[in-house]
């Protein structure tokens, strides 16, 4: 991949998009919700065109010899499209993230400060294959008052074009201008979007880990997402073994390719024998290959782990297993090898659970439940933009609230700082009601 | 300036700091507040040493021929130190930003999610001259449960060393390890801190605009701050001229070198004549040089502005003046040349004021008051880390809350996602009380 400088044409399109987004940001909640509903209707009207375009992309991709995994992600059949349209309607029904008053203070007599949530502006969305991601992100963007510039993989060009045409067709007649959704196609624009500092406010990459890392390394625009999902499950000394085995199996096998699946099992040496005795047959039954350190192998793990295993995101039915002397060793291992995504402790000792929850510096830290709960829908956010492993917010599963920022508004009747300095007016900093 | 790769020694120090910070993050509010109080006491005990060290830095800087502006910033006299110590005590007394529960939901029976504010981890502070910045940031860091790695300019080496020694001396006997404050000195470490991704969570630069921009351009770690402060004052068609003149004068002259001083005056053509008639003598009296477009010059502005003036941060008693046909033209000008810091409208038309507040995409947007109110103390935050012009939060003047992030904690009793999928348990997403 290469990042080129934006062409004059791209700059002009980005500026036009920014202006359209500025108008969108001023619309009322109802107008934005209705526009997202209309986008769903637009997709329904053009269902056949979209499916045909995707079939054409699939045929071309098969002829080009694309791998099965990529083909599976590229595929948009009637069922997937139906599900995507239903999700758009759910996004329309979500509570408005914009216009929330987060702070309200009277600084001095008749000088009132408020902090209000506002749209970010323009989202830059870059994805490999998966044309359904266009539908999801476009609806989240419009719902939250943001314009979106979307760039899909070359293999999905026909699908993306048909989807965007349908979404823009849906917007016709609503308060939202169809200029708020821009699709970049063609090689010439490449990844020049990454250079649109000041015109694009947030980059949302959707694709493989290496793809996301490449994006993070090649832009100054904030990136929402994560490269790695190296999640751990620590089985403490005092533990309900049957429950811990169930949680371990779910965390690994419910969907091994997911970022919130565990990659490493850390076993306290006092419970490791009992845990492995119960777990080994179940892992074998589920087709999970274990790779253990020497102590784990001595307890029946068949294959030896190498140093590389501790940092691997297998995204497959493989699990590294290591014995630890105590929780401190588990914490140190997670600090060293983890990706600050989601880490779990199984323990029947409440104090140990609380210590783990307080000590692990990941976006999600769980006690006695599966790592697979790390998900915006499961958290109750209604829709998910992605999961962020950055330290700064938004962090963890990010819903609509990750697509807004805030602004301070100050209303006065002529106040100057000189009047404060000279003592003619004084600060009072009185909290006012938010609602 | 050059950014070198971290040496093995720096990496080791950064890892040790990270571990010390992890322990600090677990301390209770009272322990952190007491530690900050003790830091103030440490500064008091070593007052004479600090002042002597600063005098030695000043003498060396004068001998090296440093400019007056830099010398003024380097200087730490008894009064400045007294003020800095009082500010440390104020930071100790601020409400705890850590451990606030921001979300609390029962996802399924006995499966409870909470979002809790936690320290960022380690702050990387890089500053030119100003040794008092060390005191301020170190106290904010410890109060919010963060470690800090500090790197001062070479000219302030003795001052910084004496200050850090005093702060660490203050920490002795408190619950906070003195390892939580690390001072980098010497050329060999240069700006290698910018490469400590994963070990440093936030970079806070303090210095000139070009210094901040260099930092922003040379690190993947998030940077809190802003390069430019190009603030505008728009005087609307319907306006209380006397009030608008007062606000303009205050916004420009209260402290011209501040980032929240205005650099450009946008005048609606219907009120420009009356405004300038009243304002020109006052600006002249205050020693402010005006640079106008042709229409402003026709109304008495003596000097013509060039294209460069619209994008200039003068940080001086100079103000660009431009006439606009309507608010749209003012908004377009701000969108094009502003730095999204703070912009002001003076208008006696409430609807116009609200339209400006809704339309300008800056961290602060004000109606009928001075741009100089953009400041953490004036906003009532008690202390200020800096002002951010980024789109994403934290934005605007940032208090202690900019030094924390959040983490999701999920507590269950054996829940798996498979149990949800198979219908054995169901999501309820019941909101629980925050307190």
Automatic annotation (TrEMBL), chains A, B:
It is found in: Cytoplasm. Signal peptide: none annotated. One of its GO terms (cellular component) is cytoplasm. It comes from the Bacteria. It catalyses: L-glutamate 5-semialdehyde + phosphate + NADP(+) = L-glutamyl 5-phosphate + NADPH + H(+). Its EC number is 1.2.1.41. Keywords: Amino-acid biosynthesis, Cytoplasm, NADP, Oxidoreductase, Proline biosynthesis. GO terms for molecular function: glutamate-5-semialdehyde dehydrogenase activity; NADP binding. Gene3D superfamilies: Aldehyde Dehydrogenase, Chain A, domain 1, Aldehyde Dehydrogenase, Chain A, domain 2. PROSITE patterns: PROA. The keyword Amino-acid biosynthesis applies. The keyword NADP applies. NCBIfam families: PRK00197.1, proA. One of its GO terms (biological process) is L-proline biosynthetic process. It comes from Aphanocapsa feldmannii 277cV. Pathway: Amino-acid biosynthesis; L-proline biosynthesis; L-glutamate 5-semialdehyde from L-glutamate: step 2/2. Coiled coil: none annotated. The gene is proA. This is Gamma-glutamyl phosphate reductase. Belongs to the gamma-glutamyl phosphate reductase family. It is an enzyme of class 1 (oxidoreductase). InterPro entries: Ald_DH/histidinol_DH (IPR016161), Ald_DH_C (IPR016163), Ald_DH_N (IPR016162), G-glutamylP_reductase_CS (IPR020593), Glu-5-SA_DH (IPR012134), GPR_dom (IPR000965). Catalyzes the NADPH-dependent reduction of L-glutamate 5-phosphate into L-glutamate 5-semialdehyde and phosphate. The product spontaneously undergoes cyclization to form 1-pyrroline-5-carboxylate.
């Amino acid at each position: 991949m290469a990042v080129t400088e934006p062409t004059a044409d791209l700059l002009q399109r980005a500026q036009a998009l920014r202006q359209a987004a500025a108008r969108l940001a001023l619309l009322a909640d109802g107008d934005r919700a209705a526009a997202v509903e209309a986008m769903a209707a637009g997709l329904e009207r053009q269902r056949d065109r979209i499916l045909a375009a995707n079939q054409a992309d699939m045929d071309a991709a098969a002829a080009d010899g694309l791998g099965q995994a990529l083909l599976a992600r590229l595929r948009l059949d009637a069922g997937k499209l139906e599900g995507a349209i239903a999700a758009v309607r759910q996004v329309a029904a979500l509570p408005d993230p914009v216009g929330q008053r987060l702070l309200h203070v009277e600084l001095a007599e008749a000088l009132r400060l408020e902090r209000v949530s506002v749209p970010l502006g323009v989202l830059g969305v870059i994805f490999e294959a998966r044309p359904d991601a266009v539908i999801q992100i476009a609806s989240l963007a419009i719902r939250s008052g943001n314009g979106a510039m979307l760039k899909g993989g070359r293999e999905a060009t026909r699908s993306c074009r048909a989807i965007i045409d349908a979404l823009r067709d849906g917007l016709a007649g609503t308060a939202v201008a169809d200029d708020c959704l821009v699709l970049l196609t063609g090689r010439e624009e490449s990844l020049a979007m990454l250079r649109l500092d000041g015109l694009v406010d947030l980059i949302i990459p959707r694709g493989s880990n290496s793809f996301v890392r490449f994006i993070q390394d090649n832009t100054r625009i904030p990136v929402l997402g994560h490269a790695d999902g190296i999640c751990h499950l620590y089985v403490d000394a005092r533990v309900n073994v049957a429950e811990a085995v169930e949680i371990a199996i779910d965390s690994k096998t419910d969907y091994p390719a997911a970022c919130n699946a565990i990659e490493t099992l850390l076993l306290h040496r006092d419970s490791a024998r009992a845990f492995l005795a119960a777990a080994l047959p179940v892992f074998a039954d589920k087709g999970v290959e274990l790779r253990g350190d020497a102590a784990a192998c001595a307890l029946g793990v068949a294959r030896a782990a190498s140093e590389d295993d501790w940092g691997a995101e297998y995204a497959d039915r493989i699990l590294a297993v290591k014995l630890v002397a105590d929780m401190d060793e588990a914490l140190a291992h997670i600090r060293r090898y983890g990706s600050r995504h989601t880490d779990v402790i199984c323990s029947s000792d409440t104090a140990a659970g609380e210590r783990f929850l307080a000590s692990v510096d990941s976006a999600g830290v769980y006690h006695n439940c599966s790592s697979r709960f790390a998900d915006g829908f499961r958290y109750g956010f209604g829709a998910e933009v992605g999961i962020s492993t950055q330290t700064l917010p938004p962090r963890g599963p990010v819903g609509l609230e990750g697509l807004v920022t805030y602004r301070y508004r100050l209303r006065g009747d002529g106040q100057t700082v000189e009047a404060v300095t000279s003592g003619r007016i004084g600060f009072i900093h009185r909290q006012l009601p938010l609602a």
